[in-house]
Specification:
20 strands
């Protein structure tokens, strides 16, 4: 370790070394600035990637692309309005219906004998069997296995020696038992526990009578064999109620049976709520209601314009070449407001004329231009050339187009339901596959998320460049530390020599007297 001395010579060694090192640090400061600029650029790419993914998946696919998003049909129920709920789909054929609900679909259910009041979901199977408090249970009672079989599903797992063991033991709580049953899709039942009666209740997940397919568990609850949980823990089955089909009469035709209380007829989704009874039949008519379709298309145009505006802003943003990122030393000499203004300019134009963004803009605008004829017919046009492709809507014209031919609007934006032909939403979504991939390859972004805090992949173009910067910075820091140490060592040696010379001079001067 070099001793830093501001000695008798009066020299300020620290200031002198700092002054000498300032020039030496210039290349390091430049590397830090280049690294910071690269990090800012990478974050800008992540922001763009997030916006592209959000528009492609969350908007075009999962919002505007849904079958009901452009549905301009509306079902109106008159007469008995309490027995049935009706919702028009995009495939409605306009046929009026009179519906009589004779029977509601029910689910098969099984109830066990009750184990009494005072048991909660936290109670263990061993406590139910023995009647003991948990603290009084023996290890043997806690470890005892209990079996269950529902619709051919045996709730077991394999030991290391390939033998099977039950998922349930004396330590299994009722809540854990219920969660395990409900989590198995093949068992196809929903379990619940009534804390008042202490009954375990199993209900089929599907409504209606038992399926004619012997391999299907729809509508049935078959407990099979090996059910010590039913027999030993809950004291056996007290009752079983078979599921029934819904029965309706539509337009005075023959009875129609359905496995569910919700089904589709003539493009109308019917939900049965209660038997018709004395309130008479439910009458269903359809109307065209352009409101929902208009709102969907307006929202799409707004999201499209916002994304296009962001891309155009980034591509055309002014770049200030004389404003590199500030070093820590520079920030110390500036006010907070000055730092903010400088940094805003330093971050400006990071993606100016970026080829990925420019190609994305071109592909978006080209697709709109190719379909501008049909869009114009429904009141959607582009603005002035200087507005860079912004879309505008004539709402009155759009409503007229929807009222005139609502299905053509659906087919244009979403594609015909009976065809492989893509609609405008799908075609536009396809335009973002390549940009997302290119941005990911360059910056290391995750192309499947909108998360602005997601980590970057190191093996990307920019990731590798950052590794180079870090390596160069480490080398420079090592060399600078050595240089600084050498300067201090040299100045210390000079200081020691001068002190020695001063001491000798003082001695000679004293002798001369």
């Amino acid at each position: 370790m070099v001793t830093r001395i501001n000695g008798f010579s009066g020299m300020d060694i620290d200031s002198m070394v700092k002054s000498l090192m300032a020039a030496k640090r210039a290349p390091l400061d430049k590397l830090y600035q280049q690294k910071e600029t690269l990090n800012w650029t990478r974050n800008s790419y992540r922001e763009i990637s997030s916006k592209l993914y959000d528009f492609r998946i969350n908007k075009l696919t999962d919002k505007y692309g849904l079958s009901g998003a452009l549905n301009s049909n509306k079902a109106v129920v008159t007469g008995n309005t309490s027995a049935i709920k009706a919702e028009a789909t995009s495939t409605v054929n306009g046929i009026d219906m009179e519906v009589t609900v004779k029977e509601l679909a029910t689910r098969t259910s099984v109830e066990t004998l009750g184990v009494g009041f005072g048991k909660s979901n936290k109670t263990t199977l061993a406590e139910l069997v023995t009647g003991k408090a948990y603290k009084d249970l023996t290890d043997e009672e806690k470890e005892k296995e209990y079996t269950l079989n529902i619709n051919g599903v045996s709730f077991t797992s394999k030991n290391s020696d390939n033998t099977t063991k039950s998922l349930f033991t004396g330590e299994t709580s009722i809540s854990s038992l219920i969660a395990t049953i409900n989590g198995d899709s093949k068992a196809n039942v929903l379990a619940s526990f009534d804390e008042i009666s202490g009954k375990l209740i199993l209900r089929s997940k599907t409504f209606g009578s038992e399926s004619e397919d012997p391999t299907s568990s729809d509508g049935k609850i078959d407990l099979g064999v090996n059910n010590s949980i039913i027999t030993d823990v809950f004291k056996g089955v007290s009752s079983k109620t078979d599921g029934t089909d819904a029965v309706v009469v539509i337009n005075n035709s023959q009875e129609i049976k359905q496995k569910s209380n919700t089904f589709l007829v003539n493009g109308i989704q019917l939900t049965l709520l209660e038997k018709t009874g004395a309130n008479g039949v439910s009458k269903i008519t359809t109307q065209t209601d352009p409101g929902k379709t208009v709102e969907t298309i307006k929202a799409f145009v707004e999201d499209y314009n916002n994304l296009l505006s962001l891309l155009n802003t980034k591509v055309n943003e002014e770049k200030f070449s004389g404003y590199p990122p500030l070093t820590d030393e520079q920030k110390k000499e500036m006010k907070e407001s000055e730092i903010t203004t400088w940094t805003e300019k330093a971050k400006s134009g990071l993606l100016k004329n970026d080829e990925i963004l420019k190609s994305t803009i071109i592909s978006m605008r080209t697709l709109i231009t190719e379909n501008l004829g049909k869009l114009s017919d429904m009141g959607i046009t582009t603005g002035k050339y200087t507005e860079n492709g912004k879309l505008y809507i004539d709402e009155s014209k759009l409503k007229n187009a929807i009222n005139s031919n609502p299905q053509s609007i659906v087919d244009f934006f979403q594609g015909p339901s009976n065809s492989q032909t893509e609609g405008l939403f799908d075609k536009l979504a396809d335009k973002f596959d390549k940009p997302l991939e290119f941005i990911s390859q360059r910056s290391g972004t995750n192309k499947y998320t909108t998360d602005l805090t997601s980590s970057f992949k190191e093996e990307s173009v920019m990731g590798k460049k950052l590794k180079e910067y870090n390596k160069q910075i480490a080398t420079l820091l090592y060399n600078l530390n050595n240089t600084e140490a050498r300067y201090y060592k040299q100045f210390s040696a000079m200081e020691t020599a001068m002190n020695k010379l001063n001491s000798q001079s003082s001695s000679l001067f004293s002798t001369g007297k």
